[in-house]
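Bump. Still looking for Endolytic murein transglycosylase structure tokens.
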Amino acid sequence: MSERPPISPRSPRAALEPEQVPPPPKRSERARNPFVVVGNAIFTLLIILMIGVGAVYYYGRQILETPGPLKEDKIVNIPSRAGKRDIADALLREGVINVNPWVFIGGVFALKASSDLKPGEYSFQKNASLRDVIATIVEGKVVQHAVTIPEGLTSEQIVTRLLDNDIFAGSVREIPREGTLLPETYKFPRGTTREQVIQRMQQTQKRVLTEIWERRNPDVPVRSLDQLITLASIIEKETGRADERSRVAAVFANRLRQRIKLQSDPTIIYGLVGGKGTLGRPIKRSEITQPSPYNTYVIDGLPPGPIANPGRASLEAAANPARTRDLFFVADGTGGHAFTETYDQHQKNVAKLRSLEKQIQNDTVEPSEDAPPPTAAGAPADTNPTATTPRPAAPAKKPPARPPAPATAPARQGAAQSTTTPPVVQR
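Sorry for the wait, here they are.
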């Protein structure tokens, strides 16, 4: 057996302490390489950066996709030359977004839309997310306002309407030539200039007129586009009923072929007031025979130009009138007209109308002295604001009480008797 060294007595503390501390392990030469140190640092930073980018992406996506605060669809106007901060403030003020403006700007940059934001009036849908809001502005699909121009207005009256409409901008250099604007319902974004509106109406009229002219009846007694517009404008002012336009056109076409004066009251009025459109009172007896280039009781054939801007339906009627021999028409008291080929039958229809007027007058309470004078002989004021020869009234409505035409007043032919209650001829 080997001998062990004798154990010398030691204190408990000394017994616990090692006799010799081992030296630390030597550091690897590779670990002390500066390239390794830098590489480890870069790798660590990349990991931290990736975690940060992932967190930002997740948070940003949540912000972009979260439904917005709008409780219902809303229209907001983004003014021209507005910066990204101005747009954000406007959207925040209108309740379209509920995030900090800088978050909105960050979303714009994230979607790469910094240079694509367009001014205009936009409709934002209910609960639109931030992504939807930015996409709406980038697409530039601004709100389109429907603007209806009624048939039968003069160019001066149309310009007045455009000037009174606050969705348009700019002024009008000059009133367009009569008959060059097509009445219709158009759609325009807010801020469209009035000159642009007029140009569009003129371009549409030219296109429609060309199509109608190519399909016209070769027997129609007009020889040019201007004459077609002039005839259509008279038809437009004479009736507002779609089922009568072609027949009214036939009366005037037959009169032109037989060289009979057209005798249309609206032409008298246009000769008196021009583009203002409305006479504001009945036609006087002296004005029926008053010489005027437009008075078709005096001149032969068509007047020198249109008396209003006719719509598509009246242009179609003028180009393709009904095939009848009618030469006269008069209101029948029920909202329409009675058409006849002979003057004797026309006189009978006029007598029926006079009798109906007297009956209506007897059944109607006389208005008080301070009551405003009746305007359009019972025709609804909004049907055609410029109808100087009033359009037929609805049968359910009684026209205001009016004194019958004097017994000595001649029964005027053609369109002169085309209203429900004919204009009173004053001495």
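Confidence is low (pLDDT under 50) at residues 367-427.

Edit: fixed formatting.
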